[in-house]
Amino acid sequence: MRKDLTYTLAINLKGYLLLILYILNLSNCQTPTAEWLLDTPNTATSVNNQYNGGSPAIFTDSNTLGLGANSRFIGNGIQYEGNHFSCTHTPHGNTIDNDVNFSVEFWTYINVLNINSQILCKFYRNGGLLGATVNERFCIGFNTGGGMIARMNRNNYNSGSNVQSNDLTGCQYAEGWNHVTVTFTKSGTCGFLSACNTNIACYVQTDSGLVTTDTATFNDQINDDPSNGAFLCVGATTSNGFLGGYGITDEFTGIMNQIRYYTGTVLTASQAAAGYSTNCQSYCKICQPVGTAPYQCIQQQSKYLQKYDFILPTYPVTMIHSDTSGYGFNLQVNSNFAFTPAYAHNQGLFFDTTFGAQNQYLYSTGSTAQAAEKNTFTIETWIRPTSAPAAGMNLFEKESATNTDYIARRFSSATQMQLVINGQTATLTIGAVTLNQWSYVAIHVVQTTGSQSQICLKFNSVAMTCSTVNAVFAESGTSKTQIGDGFRGFMKSLWIYDYAKEELDMAKTFKTTGCTNNVNGNTCVRCPLETGQCISDCNSNQYVNSTTNGCTDCYASCRTCWAAYYDNCYSCIKTPGTWVFDYIKKCSSTCGDGIKDDYESCDDANTKNGDGCSSTCATESGFSCFGGSFNKADTCRSQCGNGIKASTEACDDGNNKRGDGCDSQCNIETGFTCTTGSPSVCSSTCGDGRRVGSEQCDDTNIVNNDGCSPTCTINTGYNCTGGSVNSKDTCQEICGDGKDYAKYGCDDGNTVNNDGCDQNCRIEVGYTCTGGSSAVKDTCSEICGDGRNFKLVANQCDDGNNINGDGCSSTCQIESGYYCVGGSKYTKDKCQETCGDGLNFGARQCDDGNLINGDGCHSDCTIEIGFACSGGTTTGPDTCSEVCGDGRNFGTSACDDGNSNNGDGCDENCIIEFGFLCSKGDPYTKSVCKQFCNGRRTFAEMCDDGNILTGDGCDECCHREVGFTCTGGTPTTADTCIETCGDGRKLNHLECDDGNLISGDGCSSKCAVEQGWQCTGGTVFTPDICSEICGDGKNLGIYQCDDGNVANNDGCSSNCQVEKGFSCKGGNATKADTCYEICGDGKNMGTFIYQCDDGNTVSGDGCAKDCTIEAGFECAQGNFYTPDLCSEICGDGLNYGKFQCDDGNNQDGDGCTAYCSIEDGYKCAGGSKTSADFCFTLSNPSITEAYFSKNNKEITLVFNETILMQSSWNLTNAWSLEMFGPLGRNNYVFTWNVTQAARYKNPLFQGFKSIIIDFDCEQQLFGNKNKIDRVVININDRQYIRSYLQRAKMINTSAIVYPYGQDDVSIAGATTGLPELVDTLTYSLIYASYGVGFVGAMFGYSMMDVWLMMQGLQQVFLFPVSNLYVPSSLTTIFQISMQRCPRSTAFLDNSADVLTILVYFFVFSMIAEIIRMGFEENKSLNNSLQRVKSSMLPGYISFAYCKIAFNSHLNMRNLNFESNSSTVSSLMAMGFGALCWVYILYTAFQAFKFYREVKLLKRRDPPLSNEQMRDLTYFRGNVLFQEYSMDPSFYPVSLFYPSILMFKLLVVSLLAVSFDTQAQLTGYLIINLLNLTAVLLVMPFEVRLLNAQLIFNEMAVFVIYMQAHMFIPKTLIQITDFRQYAKQFQMIIVFMVGVNACFVIFSKVTQIVKCKSVARSKPNQLPILPTEQTKKVQIKPLTINTVRDFDTLNDNGEMLTSRGLLQPSVRFDTPSSDNKQTIKSAIAQPSKPISQLIDQKKKESAQSRINQQSQKKKIAQNKSQVDPSSYYDSEYISDFSSGEKNADLSYKSTPKNRRR
């Protein structure tokens, strides 16, 4: 009992805990005291507070201020145009108090930011003797720099104004949408001796992505009036004047969308940030977090004043182009496109100023003036100009009846656009316009004051420019719209928004990158953001061919078209008035109008027959018509060419060919003669001077060899030209054909000049030509010796003679050893001997074979001074040598002293003699020799090293050189000179000299360069400077690093400094440094050591801690100065949380977009760092019921799930209602409204499952002859109703509602006209069955019959009702239960009836436990209460299992973890779903255990009855399987029937959540039929009446499922054809309820009458068995007390555990005759250790075992005489229901903690 109670408490506490968690979650969100959704007005002039019963409302007036103008509602909120006000009306209660801490939060759109403006103010108006004064309490606005200013009044609320401006300019506004939060926190107490202040904090988020915050302190506090008479205003502030006068100041221009006021609450920074989201759709960067992410932008709620989309899918079916803004300002399209543009395929309208020689434009069908002035708006257009913009090209105009412009937008030049408002003009520059390219052009007009407007222009990506005009847009009287007058090009659309878009919003309308190719395959530079696809750019006379994805020309008669055939025209190519567009998709003309179109064989400008072209424009037989075109009529003639010469024919040669003498019109052609026969034979005349027919020439004669022969063929070697029908040929000999007829001087077969025979076949000067004839060409050769050289191969030279030996031979060839120059066509060559060729013909002094000077033979072949040359011949060169002894030295000799004497220092061979020093001499000076420096130092010499070299220590003068030391010289020996080390002089004999003898500084003490150093700069006068070598791989400490090279960007630079981003270490005097790139310093050096560097060593951000790119990321842009930027890869199937989803591809339409955001109607889950997301479609809301109220004043639409109405829903854009009845369609006068629309739109109510429409019709809906048949609700746009949790749009397109009593849903019509009494009776039977069942349970009887009844009804209503239109009156009981239960999650909501009954069961259990504890000694009462609970539990489990199985699996199909409540619901669904499957196994296991227990009992005690065995296995026998049959026929199959039934319900649940209605019903029928067969075979229940009830329910459910097929499908509710089926369906359900109620009532009444109570008192002793011996009860000590340890009974009747240990059991021993006694109540002994039990077991005597066996047989013979009820508390029975196994021999003597 205790465990049952604990389990029940745990189940209920879990449910309550979930409710508490949900409530705590809601408490984390601050609730405002006032909230106004300004985009959802409640009336035409006001919007209610969402709290406090709607008070105070904000009105579009200034309350009692009397200032400015009234504001107005637009799609995004309330528009303020410079001098507009909107205020609350008092009283407001305490909703907007400022006596306490408070916060203000609002969404505002700013149009003008460069002026001081107050957005939101609170005022108190104080009436007085001198008039009313206005007291400003506080204001929130901005200064000219866009910084926030908060104004607060120091004075009392009724003491005038003393306003202090508090600087919060750290909070920066921006043009466009801003989310603003301002908090006011009071500190201290204001008093004479005490200070007080107000701390102000602000948080501003802009749509440009800027997030700013700031704080300020107001050194005072503001108070509020106790009467709550103050009011909140938006738009400006007011200043006091003398005698209470005041005026409007600091006007605000823009939009206010939402205001929240928090009295008594100071929002934190996180709470302020929770008011907006950056997970938005592509139109914005901040948005309101309402709905499903990515959230909708406020911009998307905007409305239109006029909206035209000019793209047509096929051809225009009406002359009206509709306005889709809702205002109906339609445009007129001329029927033959005379002055209106033509539709162009996939592009919109084509305006062509050249067509028809007039401008083309669209004009409105009526006045387009707005009902109320709307002075702020935006006009957007996509245009593709085809000619350069110029003045007079209008895009948009609104003008008066007298053609005066209210507003105009036009080009003023090729680079400027002009905007006109009521006579005021602004000209703005747009830059160069690219022709034939789609451009986005938009203007916004915003009223800034009562008389001024700001006009701004945005053209493509050019920065928006603005101008102010002294005018406000206003329309009076008729206002006509005109589009495109004078414009030439294409126009796709024209949208006029009801607010002024800022540049930030305009720039988001299009994009310039990432555009997909258009439908004809071309790319573009910009495209609409909405589609992301380039707009088609075909020519106007082309269409987009879907097969080739390219542009294809239209049919010839079509000016524009949508396909290639003659009946696919949009407009015609002919000018209006000639051809008309007849709205049958083709262009046609009239027969006989002289214009031949493609459908006429001919058109001869008349409708006469017999003239060749018939009256139907068909060519008549025997005629031919020709010449007809779009501009010319046909000419028809009799048929020519048939070979029969008619009288009208000059000839007829049997064909229509021209040029054969008889032309195509049968006229004799010039130059021919034709016979008169048939057919005519025509021939040309030779010699008549006319070349016709087959004549090759005709030179007016028939003379031969003049070029044209007597047969008019061209003679060989001639060419004849100029001949025609009207002129003769001129024949000439052909020059250059290689045939010489002596007409020319020569003919060498070509017409090339300079080859002897020129181009005119004349012999050229210097040539001779011979050998030519009529068959052989001439051969031309150059003349030799005439003094002309044509530079041909034949003559190399020509010196004017034929003499050899003068350089040019007699054959004009250059002779060896000569060269000839100067020859040309006009001059002869001059030849000279060649100098330097090594040949001497005697004309030169010498020729040594070269032209080098200084070698004896000069370059002009003359002998040089000081040389002698000889030996040159005509075959060999001269040899030249220097003359020795002539006193000239050219460098060849060591000396030349001018003589050939020896002993004077220079010998006869000009060699310096030893011991002498001779000067070198030169070509002009002889050498001078002296005996000196001979290796023997004299007293006159400072040194003598035996040479006269300098630089070796002893110079040529035998002087010791500086920096040297010379020693060892004597008169007989030479000196040895060495360079001095360490003197700071470098003379190149030492490696270095740094001026010291210290080693280790680069230059050693021996002046050798040390390893790792380099020394430079040393001269005779300066020492070496030594430095460490950079790049040699040795680091001596002078440099930061040395990596063995001088390359940069490897860590150690070229000057051995450590580079930024690197670290170098390890270098020393013998080893180079090793440099590593630093990971995490934000510098990517590109060394390929690291893949990335993002400035940190944190993994998980794309660049790992070891600077490698992590899987799923890509990193770029890193360099020497900036870190890498890593971003998650979209489409790789790895989701790190940066994207909403990643399904492994970049395709749209599969749930996850190409940009990895979740698409509407999908949910994605399962993505991780290692796996892709799986996306699946969400369920869509659908209308399941639609019915009228009893008074026909309300229509209720019931949905299959919780829905939320979108804020943009209104009566005109979402739904429309139509009436049908005897008066005809739409001839009924009615009104309708959804007065609770604001409530349905408010997400704080967490959605609704039904919507109520207020309806009123002047004609009676019921009982009148004109009563309506039905009302059809057309769902024009399904996106306005969406799922609350999943934001999926609804699927219905319409709903049909029937008046009360005529439908199948209302109470009167729930059974298709059956009386309401039937419904009442049905409810009564259900309630009665519950009542009787509970009463029976109080007497201990099972409620299985009640649960069978409810389970049958569950199968009828829980499953098909989701997808079928089924009458649902009987589900009221479940609906009532749900309304009484908490609705925290979807799972709890759908399982409310189950949880409700569980709560009742828990309460009953608690009451029963209290009663039992109060009357614990009344065993009968205690046993009865236990029996009652036991009888209720199995039935409840059966009832609850059906509902929980369905709800858990339905929720698992739509798991949602986006909110706390949905997460709890999803987790509960998963848990309960798994529990359903586990419980099947648990039930089957218990059935198997019960079967084994009964089997062992039967084996041990065969005479035991079924009731006794149930009692002996109490928990299973009398609780789990108390009603199930133990009949041997199908036993133990009947015990497993609960598992079979639950498995059936699980399969049905799986079918139900599939949402495939046909598959559902088919599956239901099959499963139900199988289950019905099983029931008929098994008969699972012990009581026959229960079997009969079960069989009846299964048959009824089967019939109902068969009937349910009549109600497929249900996506569009149509009831008319199903009324008869619905009536039958309803009757079956009513019959099912009635029969089940009879089963329940009859069963319970019978049981109660036959047996008043089963709660009888039970004896404490067993009856004495009929034997002479009494029995002694021996109690085994307890060791284990859990029911799970029980496994079986041994052959001795003792209970064994699964571990084989003996459990306490009752054993009957036969005592000896001298020890007879009655059985006494045994007391359970305390538990003993297992070891003691074993010892006690061993001590039992063998006699006791024998006696026990014999006594066992006697007991079995007498147990059948025992009353079964005595087993209920017998000492022999263990209390299985509480899980204890101890023998309860005496209830009273049992300790309380062990009682049942």
TrEMBL record:
<dbReference type="GO" id="GO:0005615">
    <property type="term" value="C:extracellular space"/>
</dbReference>
<dbReference type="GO" id="GO:0006508">
    <property type="term" value="P:proteolysis"/>
</dbReference>
<feature type="transmembrane region" description="Helical">
    <location>
        <begin position="1590"/>
        <end position="1608"/>
    </location>
</feature>
<dbReference type="GO" id="GO:0004222">
    <property type="term" value="F:metalloendopeptidase activity"/>
</dbReference>
<feature type="region of interest" description="Disordered">
    <location>
        <begin position="1739"/>
        <end position="1796"/>
    </location>
</feature>
<keyword id="KW-0732">Signal</keyword>
<feature type="transmembrane region" description="Helical">
    <location>
        <begin position="1394"/>
        <end position="1411"/>
    </location>
</feature>
<dbReference type="Pfam" id="PF13385">
    <property type="entry name" value="Laminin_G_3"/>
</dbReference>
<feature type="transmembrane region" description="Helical">
    <location>
        <begin position="1325"/>
        <end position="1344"/>
    </location>
</feature>
<dbReference type="InterPro" id="IPR013320">
    <property type="entry name" value="ConA-like_dom_sf"/>
</dbReference>
<dbReference type="Pfam" id="PF13948">
    <property type="entry name" value="DUF4215"/>
</dbReference>
<dbReference type="InterPro" id="IPR043543">
    <property type="entry name" value="PAPPA/PAPPA2"/>
</dbReference>
<dbReference type="InterPro" id="IPR011936">
    <property type="entry name" value="Myxo_disulph_rpt"/>
</dbReference>
<feature type="transmembrane region" description="Helical">
    <location>
        <begin position="1561"/>
        <end position="1578"/>
    </location>
</feature>
<feature type="transmembrane region" description="Helical">
    <location>
        <begin position="1535"/>
        <end position="1555"/>
    </location>
</feature>
<feature type="transmembrane region" description="Helical">
    <location>
        <begin position="1628"/>
        <end position="1649"/>
    </location>
</feature>
<feature type="transmembrane region" description="Helical">
    <location>
        <begin position="1356"/>
        <end position="1374"/>
    </location>
</feature>
<feature type="compositionally biased region" description="Polar residues">
    <location>
        <begin position="1757"/>
        <end position="1768"/>
    </location>
</feature>
<feature type="transmembrane region" description="Helical">
    <location>
        <begin position="1432"/>
        <end position="1450"/>
    </location>
</feature>
<keyword id="KW-0677">Repeat</keyword>
<dbReference type="InterPro" id="IPR009030">
    <property type="entry name" value="Growth_fac_rcpt_cys_sf"/>
</dbReference>
<keyword id="KW-1133">Transmembrane helix</keyword>
<keyword id="KW-0472">Membrane</keyword>
<feature type="transmembrane region" description="Helical">
    <location>
        <begin position="1470"/>
        <end position="1491"/>
    </location>
</feature>
<dbReference type="GO" id="GO:0007166">
    <property type="term" value="P:cell surface receptor signaling pathway"/>
</dbReference>
<keyword id="KW-0812">Transmembrane</keyword>
<protein>
    <submittedName>
        <fullName>Uncharacterized protein</fullName>
    </submittedName>
</protein>
<keyword id="KW-1015">Disulfide bond</keyword>
